[in-house]
TrEMBL record:
Any GO BP: positive regulation of B cell proliferation
Pfam families given in the database record: Rib_hydrolayse (PF02267)
Organism: Neophocaena asiaeorientalis asiaeorientalis
This protein's record includes keyword Kinase: no
Keywords: Disulfide bond, Hydrolase, NAD, Transferase
Annotated TM spans: none
Entry similarity comment: Belongs to the ADP-ribosyl cyclase family.
Protein's name in the database: ADP-ribosyl cyclase/cyclic ADP-ribose hydrolase
InterPro entries: ADP-ribosyl_cyclase
Length: 337
């Protein structure tokens, strides 16, 4: 189903979706500064993004630490406690979100996933996740698939954790790896906690290959009316012609299972109107779908999603403000250490 963020990269110029090189850029919800979701991939879990002030104050300290580490790769290292996080997410998904999946074995799913942790970090193929996908995949409700580019925050808010729609981050095989990074050390056994490769380092890195595999399966399992949310305020265009949606999802849509495709071009509140339906890259997408034989429609600023956009902006602003005082206290404490 990376918050990359959105730059052209090597290896076929596919825009990254992994945790280390960021799947897609967060859509700004209005007059507040853009906040990027931890360089996420795929679709990020529904969580509160860090306020811009927090990022601004903490990034210099983090950058200094990263420089001192002299990392081999350009991406974040393996997240600490990877196994515990993975198993916890899996158990939560089955117990809380989808009790009908009670027969899924989270331990077996983890064992299949961790096979890539024994491979060279630049030699992990999408097919290396086949067993993991086979054990964790499940049906996606008809008319509930939501594909997207450059609009993570709005997508997760509008999807309501799978209750309204089911984007990739709300299926089991997308949720367990969301916002995480992982890789083996280059010339040794054991995990690399210092850095992991991104598409800038090598094409076949663990996180990007994970999202390629997950994206392909998600597209294959989607049916009925398919929804696509694009950011019409994105400076580089609403529809990246080289990206996960273009390269790994559209080609695997099953025409005999799909009724039609509905495109929503959303524009940031207070932001620029770069592209709308029938314009620029959106027109390229429309022409591609038509050539493939899909029925489609396109709507600018879909009303229901726009309402969610305004609500999310209000909540974001309130929560951002609530961080300021605790943050200043924390920084003062650190300064005295």
């Amino acid at each position: 189903m990376k918050q990359k963020e959105r730059q052209q990269v090597s290896a076929g110029s596919v825009r990254p979706r992994g945790a280390t090189s960021a799947r897609r850029e967060e859509a700004s919800l209005g007059g507040t500064p853009k906040v990027t979701a931890m360089e996420a991939m795929g679709c990020a879990r529904s969580r509160r993004p860090l306020p811009a002030l927090l990022l601004i104050l903490l990034l210099p300290r983090a950058a200094g630490a990263a420089g001192a580490a002299d990392a081999r790769w350009s991406g974040q290292g393996t997240v600490p406690h990877l196994q515990s996080i993975f198993l916890g997410r899996c158990a939560e998904y089955i117990a809380v979100l989808s009790p009908e999946l009670r027969d899924k074995n989270c331990t077996a799913i983890w064992e299949a996933f961790k096979l890539v942790l024994d491979k060279d970090p630049c030699s992990v193929l999408p097919s290396d996740y086949d067993l993991f996908i086979n054990l964790s995949r499940h049906s996606i409700p008809r008319d509930k698939s939501l594909f997207w580019e450059n609009g993570h925050l709005l997508v997760t808010s509008y999807a309501e954790n799978g209750r309204r729609f089911t984007p990739l981050c709300n299926v089991l095989y997308g949720m367990v790896g969301d916002f995480l990074s992982w890789c083996r050390q280059k010339n040794a056994s054991g995990l690399d906690y210092q850095s992991c490769p991104t598409s800038e380092d090598c094409e076949n890195n663990p996180v990007d290959s994970y999202w390629k595999s997950a994206s392909i399966q998600y597209a294959k399992d989607s049916s009925g009316v398919i929804y696509v949310m694009l950011n019409g305020s994105e400076p580089t265009g609403a529809y990246p012609v080289k990206g996960f949606f273009a390269d790994f999802e559209i080609p695997h849509l099953q025409k005999d299972k799909i009724t039609r495709i509905e495109i929503w071009v959303m524009h940031e509140i207070g932001g620029p109107n770069v592209e709308s339906c029938g314009e620029g890259s959106v027109k390229i997408l429309e022409e591609r779908l038509e050539k493939m034989g899909f029925q489609y429609s396109c709507i600018n600023d879909y009303t229901a999603a726009t309402s969610t956009q305004r609500e999310a902006l209000s909540v974001y602003a309130e929560r951002s403000a609530s961080f300021v005082f605790p943050l200043l206290v924390a920084l003062a404490s650190v300064a005295q250490m």
